[in-house]
Structure formats: C-alpha cells, structure tokens
C-alpha cells in the first residue's frame, strides 16, 4: 500500500483486535454440518448468552450490526405497528428510515445530536399515542459519542406494554448495559467494538415477547437474510443453519468472549471508564470542547471532541496520523465535520491510550497553527489516572 | 467439545482453509475509514477482478453466497421481469423461490436432480416465451454434484438479449469457468469453496448490462443488506462503505486470492480435475454408483455417490468419521438420504485425498456389513493418478 | 520456492505441527524479565513436568535435542567417569563421540543397527566393569526406527548404582515411556516429534542423583550453552534466565503440552500405536520388509522399511513426492540408502495416514517399475484399523 | 497468570514482535530434509545476507545471540591468540570471560560503564602489544545503553592485521551499522531486538579472514553446539544441517527480514533515531539524567536513565507498570539498580512511544513522591517530533 499502516488506531470501530482474537480468527475452518462444529457453535452461543446476562439463548447473525439492525426492523415491525423512534443522533435517526419501510406509522422524538432523550419525553409520547407498539433507541449513538438513558426509558416502555429495540453496538462490553435490566426486548450488539473482536457478526438478545411478536408478524421475512426467525434455533445442534455461518468470525467471537469473561466484565468496564475520563480531562485542559452537551451523557467508550472553529476535521485527522501515526474517527452524516471521535474500545481502552490520544490530538492542532498546551493536557489526563490507581 | 475434531474434512463446503488463509485471517483488523485500509481493499478487489477475468470491478458482499444470491435476485429482478429459472437441483430450484418474490412471472425448466439442463430446452423456452428477461442457472448444483452447460446456455440467453445470473459458488476457482466467457451478467461465487478460504463473503462479477437493469428496477433495494447497488462503487477509495466490511474476511480473501494467482489457475483446476477423476475411478471400482446420470456432468469439485440400497447415509457418514476421522457431506433437501458427497475443493483437491476418500468410503460400507473391495478402489484411484503424473 | 510444498509430511521429524501449536507460536513475545512472562514460564514448566510424570521440575533448554544431548554429556560426564554407551543405531553410536570428550573411559556395547540391546549384555558389562558410572542409551534410535528395552536396562543400571541417560526424543509423547519408571536419571526429549510441536527446545527430566553428580563434576560447564546447571532453577520466578529463552518456542510448547494433556496421553499413545501397526501390515502385505529384525522392536512412532534391492532410496522418496505429494524420511549415516522411514508422530499419528503412507510408498515403487499390489497393502492396513475400532 | 500482561513493553529486548512476524511464526513447520524447506532456508539466508550488506553468506545459529557469542569465542579464539577485549559495559566485560577460556592471553581496556572506548586507546594497545590477534567489542552495550565507535576501531584493528569480533545484537537493524563497513570479521546480531522478531536465533556475518582463522584453530569445536564451522555451508541446499534448525524461528526471521527490507533500512533507522531523540528530550525536561556520560554515545535503540537518588529502580518499574501497564528494563550486573532502560526497538521505535515512555516514567516518579513535570516532559518530546516531521 502507498500509505503506511497506522501505529495506533483509536477509532470508534472497527477497532484493533486483541492478539488472542487474531489467533482465534486463524483457527481451522470447521464444517458446519459436522458434530464437532455444532457443539462448538452451541458452546460459543452459551458463552455469548452468559456475557449478555440473558435468560434466552443469544442470537448470532452472520453479518455486521448495521444490517443486523435492518433485519431486526424487518422482522419485528409489522404493518400494524406504530413505532416510536428516538433520535438523538445519526444512527437513531437512521433506524427510523428502516422502520418506516415496515411500520404502520412512525412517531419520532428527535433531540439535538449532542443531547440525550429525556425519559419524560417518552412518557409523554405514550400519553399522546397509547397505540405505540415498538420503541427503538440507540444506547450509544456513536456518531455523537452520546448515550441515552436506556434503563429509564425501558421501564416506561415495558409499563406501556410496548416492545423496545435497543442498539447497544458500541456500548455493550464496555460498560454496564445488558438487555434484561434495561427491559430491551431486542438488544443488538456485536463483537467489533468494545469486545475487541472482528466486525462481521451481529449479536442479539431476543426475549419471548419479541419472538412472539415476530411470529405473529405476517410480513416477517423467512428464508431471507433479513429474517431473525430463521436463526432462532440455529444454536441447537439438532437444527441446520439457514445458511452457512461465517465460521472464521465465530472462531474470532469465541476468542473475544473468552477474553471478556476471563478478565471479568466489571474490570473491563472500569478501564473503559477510566480511559474516557482521563481522555476528557486532557482534552478539556487543552481548551477544547466536548461535543456532548453535558459530560454525563458522554460515552465511556468514545470521546467526541468539537472541531475548533476555523479548522477542518480532515486536517486534524491527517496531522495526527502523519505526526504520530495515530488514527481517530471523524463524525458521520450530520456530525461529519463538526466533531472528531476518539475511541476507547477493547484493546485501547487502557488509560495510557488516553495520553496517546491527548498528545496526538493536541499535537495535530499545533501543527495546524493553534496554540495548544499539550503538556497541560497530558498532566490533566495523568492526574485522573494517578488518582484512580493510587 | 465432546466430539473430537475430524482428521480430514472432505466436505462440499465450508472446506478446510489453507494455512496461508488462516494466517491472513489473523492479520490486524484495519479501520475502514483509514487510508491504508481503503488502499488495501481496492487492491484486494483488483486481484479478485483479475481472478474472475472480469473487465468490470468485482463486487464483494459481506456475507456468504446464499444471501448473496438472495440479494442478487432482489436487486436484479424487477416487477416487470419474466424469469426463466433452470432447476437441475436443490439450489437451482431454491433460487426460484427468491425470484418469485420479485418477478412478474416465473417460468421454470426442471430436470431430474441427477441430470443437467439441455441448452435446447432453453432455446425452446425462449421460442415459447420471448419475453423472458432474466435466466437464472446454477453452474454446479452442489447438493447433486452436477454441472450445467452454462457456456452454451449463456450464448442462447445473450442472443435473446436476456440477462443471465449464474451461481458458480462451488465451481469457480476449481475449474475453467468465468463470467465473461459464459455470458453471465451476474456471476456469483465466494471464497469458501474451491479457493480454500473462509465462508463469509460473496464475490460477484456484475457487468454493465446488469447494473443498468438494476438501476432501472424501481424495486431494487437501497440502504439495505439486499442491495447490490449500495456496494457498486465501494471498492473505490473515495467512496465510503455502505456498512462496515467484514475486515477479517477481506484479509482472508486476500490470502486465498494470492495463493490462487500464485499457484496459477490452470494448475489449480488440473489438480481438482485429477482428484475427482481418481476418486470416481475408485468409487466405481468398489461397485458403487455415481449420482450423476452421466459422468460428464459430474463436477470436478465434488463427487456425489449414490447411497447403496438398504443403507442410510448418516450411518455411512458416521462410520467413515469414527473409523478414519474422515468427514463427507450428505445431500440436501431432495437429495438428502440419497447420496453422499465427497468434496474436492481447495486444499484437499489433491489426488492423495482421493485415496483417503475411497478408503474411508469403502471402509465405512464394510463396517456396515457390505462386501466392498477397498483395495480394488484404491488400485483404480491410484492408476488414474499414476497415469496422469507418469 | 521452485519446489511446491509437500501435501502430507510423514517424516521422522521435524513433523507437521498441530494448528493449535501454530497459533501458540504466534502469540505475543513476552519480555523475559516481566512478571507475567515469569509466571507463564513457570506454568509451562509445571505442565511439562506433569507430562513427564516427573517429581523434579522439568528442565527446558533453548535449542533442539541434539545439542541438548551434547550439553547433557558435557554436564554429567566427568573426568573420572567410566561410561557404558549402548549403540543400537546411529544416534546411540553418536552419543559415544560426545561422551569420549569428557569421560575417563568409554565402554561400548554395539549391536547391528536393526537390532536392540539385550539387557543381559548390560548386566554382563557391569560384571566385567563394576566401575561403570554412567550408562547412555537411546530409547528409539530414529535412524533405525528401533527401540531399546530401556525400562529393563534402567533397573540394572540403578541396581549397580550407576546413572542412566536416556534419549527419548522421538518416542516420548507417542508411547508409554517416562523418566522415573524407566530409572532414567537424565531423560532427554523435545516438542518437535510426537508432541507435534516445533523443533527448537530440549525438554529434560533430571533427578537429584544426576544433579548431584553434575554439581560434583569439576568440568561441568558453567556460564555456557553446554551447561545444564545454569538452567536448573530457571523455572523459578525469582531466578533470572542464564540467557534469553526462546520465547516463541516456549509459547509453542505451551500449546503442544496443552493438547497432549487435554487429549489424554493414553489416547495419544493408542493412535500412534494403531497407526504404526496398520502401516506395517500394509507395508508387509505389499511384499516389503521392515528394517527392524523383529517387529517387537519397531517403534510405534516410526516405521523403517528396507529399501528393496536394486532401488535407490532417493528415487523412492522422489517418486512418492511427485506422484502424491507425500514426504518420507531417508536413513541417516549408516542407515542412509538402506531404509526409508515413515513417521507416525503427532498430527499424522492417525490411522488414515497409514493408508496414505502405504499408498504413496507402494505407488512410488510401481513408478520405479516394481510390481506392487497397493490394493493389498491398503486392504491389510484398513483391516487393522477396522478391527481395532470395530 | 496472576499478573496481567503488560499493555506496552518498552524493553531492551526481547521486544514486542510485529504482527507480521507473529503470523510468520505460525507458518507450517517444514521438514528440514525436504527440498521445499531447503530452498526456503537458502532464500531466507540470502535475504539476511542482503540485510547485513555482507558479501559472504550469512550464518544463522539456532539459539539466541548470548550463546551465539560464546560459540564465536570458542570457534575463533585459539590457544595462540592474544585477545584485546574492549569493555565499556557489562556485556563487553562478559565477553572477556568467554575469551579467557580459549585465548593465550587476555588484554583488556576497560572504561567506566557510562563511557565509550576511545579508538586512541586501541591504537595504543596495539603499539604496546603488536601480537594482539583478536579484538572483541560490543557496539551497543545494552546494559548501559551506550555505543562504541566500532567503525573507527575497526580500521585500526584491520590496519594491524588483527581480527575483530563485533557484538551488534541490539543495534543492528536499528541504525546504520554493518559488518563490512565496520571492518568486523565476525559480526553478531539477532532478530529479537531492532528487527522486531523473536529471540531464538543468532545471525552472523563471518568473512573469509575469520573462516580461515577458525579453520586453522586446532581447538575450534566441531560436532558441537559451539561450532561455527559446522554451520558454514548449512545454507546450501546440497548440505545437510548439523542438527535440526529451529524451523519456527526461521519462519519468524523470514517475516522480520521481509518487513525490514520492505520498509527500507534507512526509514527504519530514522524512526529509531527520532524516537530516542524525543524520548531523551522528554526525560531531560523532567529533570532526569541520562546514564550515558555524553548524549552522543547514547544508543538510538535504547535510552538508559539514571535512577534518581533515593529511589529504587524496582519501585519505579513497578509503578510504571501498575499505573500505565508500561514495562521498562532495569540494568544488568554492574548497572542494576543504577539505571532504567527504555527500549526503542522494532515495533515501538515510533515517536508516539517516546511520549508513552516519558509519561510512564514521569508518572512513576510522581507516584513515588517526586515532583516531576510530566507535562514539560511530553512537551519537550513532542517538540522534537513535531520539528522532525514538520
């Protein structure tokens, strides 16, 4: 390639995979009709279920979570369903487009993309439209780096007997969020973000309420890549796969889940949180602004930094890469050009990478002519780390 | 796992991956917005294009070929299209179900599943229905191990100005079949069969005629996992990916394509053909029958053997596995129970594995009480090899 | 490379590594002064000790067993030691040359290289020379594929209060042989043969008697690659390594030992034995002669076949490789040209590879103009397998 | 393991291996008597020769460079040789002990271990002792992080018709040092330092003068792990290996050499130099002292920092590891306790790791109660980087 590989990637995903995941990806390709593979697949499914803290078997789909969410929309949302879509960012907004293909009517609550949905808004929506059947929400709207209060929203949705679909792709595995305690009926995530795995699978938790609704949906796809129902029992050794699973990705997932469970979820979340906290302290100490309206809604897995006036995001990204070999993510859609995202996911959710991020971010701005005190940034970041690990 | 891994897998796919592919799968996960990855992706695409001997850029879809074929049907076949589906096996028949979701009318030619489509039938169909717009055909209908004369059919389809969609998933890479010389407008294959790669991607060649038809199709999916159009220009460095590519699978594909091009396609095809020929000689010498009505239509990438009367396919498979650790494939759908398939794809498309197959197959029958002369089988198989390599 | 990789290697070592070993070899390189690596190294040492069924901690040397044996000779044999060297093959004979560099006097029992040492000869030697202090013996003299009755010899040596050094490089891990039950004071082996690992380490069991003798040896090397004493306590976390360990090899050893312990040593030995037995049945059924004077002394890990009169070993090897891609080993030194060795070690110690071996061996002879009934060979080989697994 | 893996290892070696090296280590284990492996080995040898910029074929020994140096001493230094050993550090001093085992007389020049040998001292030694036959010198004495002026010394040695043995283990591959331009007759290095490979091989360049001297040495070891002569022609396909090569290590070396040649040696050296320069700027800006008496003699591959008065090296190392997961090296022997070494070798010879080093070093001191301005350190380090890459 003409361009050298980055030295350190601090993206919002796909992220650098753990070495153990890379080794898992290189395992022999099992034959999907062989007993050994069937046992292995079920074992992986059980471990994913355990990691999801779910009482229903996990659902693995063999493509990444964006089409996974499309499939969830296609399968869950029927022609009689009124859907409340909660849009606090590009991904939340985007889900509405898929929903609209299938639903009877789309109701939407939209807030500025540096804000979070207020549970009271959801309560109000139900008051106005008690016929809402499905609520969709993104937990961490990655293009904004902001989080919605899914647990609070979930209780409201459940109370109104509606179904909730949660996109937790870039938060699960990096913080304390699970399907059942957040009342999610469909909970969508994947191995390519906080788990430090490869991006090529969707992981879902689907409960009985959701399965029943899908089974009753006359338009739910079958014999289709969009079908969740096709895969409902695929984890069982006595059931054939609807189509060939992505064996290498399952191998990789196995490696990623093993790491997660062995390190201990609480330990994993803690280092994600500390890395984010240190990073933000450093960013702010350099006089920069977080994108999130309030730091409480900033994700522990991603720090979105507002692009300083007069600068272009692409120039900052290019400078950080050429000076230090450090790669960040830009915004997406509406947020493109307005913010830069520093990922804290998986392997790089370690405090020292907050220092790397602050240095590369600050250094890039200096290269573009801004007066930035990188030393102050690093001092602030390390103060957070030192205190937490005193 | 309770069950031991097989020693040698001679399946009809997924197949054992080459060691170099396994190493490629373990490469670092690139970030899909980074310049280095974009250059890499384009380079892989170019090599795939070269291997396809196609003049249009290859199309890579990020799931395995079964949904890849569904996506092709969804994208290509419009509400005004009369489709001629050629069904000589389970997969050919199955494509008709997808087609029927989108087409105006489905015309079908069906032959027994141990037979091949006769080009004259296609010519006759066009005479009767000159409004046929799309013809779909499976080159190697894997559940039968039989091949259709796609090149001859292609000329007829082209002459009638219709579009032809070819499923060459389990033949391409193992024999001399390419999109342009077979007049395929959409040619669907993947890395998980003869290329000895992992099963998690679809590779397509799509020509301008097909792209135009899709662009004119009012129902062609967009912003969907079923969309081919979304991915048309994804290989270009200046275009974002519609959704995150399966990075690890692309790494693996790169490894597989490099091996294929380095060994030389003609050399690869030759060892597939010789392995199949030796295997069949051995199978016949043991008094067994090929499933294919005529050996000329048996695929060089898979030998389907008729299950001897009075025996169950699963018992034969289990005996071969327990005695020798050798795994074969059963039939699928209509052919389940009637045949057993010995794969000759990728790594195991080497003549010595014909001996392994004959031994394990014959030995399994002996275990089940049949009188089988395994020695005669091996003698016949090796005679073919010895003569070819004299 | 101009020459294609073999398809199947049935050598007497180095042998094909298990996929899990190859993955282990690709683990990150630990830093040998870091606590994590020190803990890992000790853990590996413990597992090796367990696999050796030894009550003293295993000794790992960071080069392959041939220099490992030289180091053992240099460390153990002092200027006052009379050494009895038992030579039933090239490796046994060779050890005498190293011994002669260090000992006071070398006494040798030599038998034809297709024969085994008779314990009575050892008893007689002690009668004649009660001053024998060290006895050296090769358990499986790989260049001959023959075994010596080490357990019986060991009891005699112990009775006479001498020390015994056993080379079990190519037998341990493939059959029931361990240091303590064979009264070996130094037991030398490695991961590159029956363990299916990489060849780059020596594994030893050294008991207190041997350590004491070394400590009392005024010429025992120190601060040298030839020193065993330097490494005595290297497994302990509080001791520095005498020089940098071969980290990747230790990673690979960890993978190999885990496989061995997980599969169960008895199971591993059983498949080695069955493969050898099936192979020999096939070889004999083709009218060929085993090299070993009696089949009882033929190793379960290697079958040495006498080169038929009028043929050259290299021609047979070349024919098997060009026809089938199968690689065997020739003899070494005295046995070069007289025999060909078929390895049954590690991954290929599976009965189906006996069939591969018989086919390739017989086919090679046919190519060279000999009348060989390969069918009869395979029939005989499979009869052994079928009976054992009935 | 009880202890977590480090996050970032900045050791003086073994160092983190490049991902491509880890993949190379996982390649199949070739059989050392097979033609394919022999071709591969020769090809690797050629590439190593090219990287050494040597006109004689490289010599690969199958253990790490410490015993490699012992073997060089044993092979080169004969009973009639007067040896001048240049000791500017622990490794230089140590070589003298090996030399003394073989030489007629050992003459030594020793300077303080934070200093370098002055070529004038060597000239003076020859004046006094014109019978000096061999001069041994360490280019980068790793336990001190200091370099000797090998090129200047080499010219003097050559002029006096003596032989020079250079230990360039931890400098070659990271800076512009090669055997012929430094008049080294034996030049010893390895893949486990600046090449970012695994530590398990020795790489040497040996010229005809050295070979002749060894061949004339009556005590030069043969049939021994200490023999260089045994391996002289081992790279040739028509010569057997003296003992089994460490196949996995050769695979890894191949991967490491390919990376080095592909990136371009000059580019590699440049990033080593810049990383070291930035690191030292940061270290000094925090008020710390370099170990080296003058910065000119500090190696571009390792920064040795004087342990501040009143602190213990182990406490600093432990603090850096627990706070940031960053691992450094302590001193060795005489330098243990007096300095801490920050490695800049291979993968981590990238400027951003200078920032990591400065942060972790400074942070560790702060944890131990010292007033350290980490911000100033990072500012100074980045200033160096920013200027170099402006």
UniProtKB/TrEMBL annotation, chains A, B, C, D:
Transferase recorded as keyword: yes
Record PTM N6-(pyridoxal phosphate)lysine, positions in chain: 193
Species: Hypericibacter terrae
Pfam family, one: Aminotran_5
Top-level lineage group: Bacteria
Family, similarity comment: Belongs to the class-V pyridoxal-phosphate-dependent aminotransferase family.
Domain called Aminotransferase class V: residue spans: 101-331
Protein name, per record: Aminotransferase
Residues where substrate binds: 341
